[in-house]
Amino acid sequence: MRIDEGLQRLVQGAARVAVLTGAGVSAESGVPTFREARSGFWERFDPEELATPEAFARNPRKVWAWYTQRREQARRAEPSPAHRALAQWEQLLEWCCVVTQNVDGLHQRAGSSHVIELHGNIHRDRRFEADTAPAEDLDGLPRCPETGALLRPDVVWFGERLPEGALEAAKEAMRSADLVLSVGTSALVQPAASLPLEALERDIPVVEINREPTPLTPVADWVLQGEAGEILPQLVTAAGSGAKRAG
Ligand code: BV8
Fold this sequence. Notes:
Elements lengths: L4 H9 L2 E6 L2 H4 L6 H4 L9 H4 L2 H6 L1 H17 L4 H12 L2 E6 L5 H5 L4 E3 L2 E8 L23 E5 L10 H11 L2 E5 L11 H6 L5 E5 L11 E4 L2 H13 L7
Parallel strand pairs: 1-2, 1-6, 2-3, 6-7, 7-8
Antiparallel strand pairs: 4-5
The structure holds ligand BV8.
């Protein structure tokens, strides 16, 4: 993928970068994306059906089986060239805020220090609070050591509110950046998918890097169709070939 002159100048002049990421940046780490997740081993686990509080109340064992498998996968995974490129870019900038939909913690492991986890983190648990008493058969499922309450993964399920402040902080990053990227996301899940519009409404340039077109593609200023792990390192190389701007 050749980075054209205009885009080179854009990344060289950027000082404050906000990046929305999705499962596509972890795909090259071996973590299946949600679109692929519906094929192969995952076909019996439909994310939209399982990643809900109702599914957990109905069948906590099946939901825990899905998350335990994904948690192990995330633990075994290594940050991809895309994760690493964003961590490197941060060293050249005044700030680089990674707003991620992913729950695998790989941005932090790659060295990004300013990460907003819109949908939580699969490596953390929290107490399951619901008015509907979960199914009876709870033997062997994770429980809170203090209260004995049933635990659930500390992620945001469909129909649940995003973590307090995360959405506001993400919007603020999109509004105060001088360059926004959307990388490796199908841009379908709300409210995350609408975050780049905060930048577009303020004439802040938006660059989309994705394997396939998405609802953002028609309105993005730059569309680089391809692998995040190839394109992001090239962008960071181009950014580095400009003067240092941090501080
Ligand atoms: C909420 C955590 C309200 C859990 C996740 C109708 C219309 C609009 C909205 C709705 C609607 N009906 C319901 C809603 C709301 C709903 C929603 O958006 N539904 C969608 C399906 C329409 N949203 C919610 O429920 C949210 N909450 O709205 O609350 C509310 C308000 C007040 C009070 C109470 C409630 C919560 C949504 C969060 C759900 N949790 N994850 C877990 O991980 O298990 S979502 C999960 O799926 C991810 O976090 C992510 O957000 C989404 C998957 O998207 P992607 O990351 O983009 O992954 P995907 O596989 O789809 O795409 C990957 C892309 O990468 C592809 O395009 C592929 O081509 C590309 N790619 C692959 N490899 C590469 C690559 N690109 C480049 N390089 C590569 N190597």
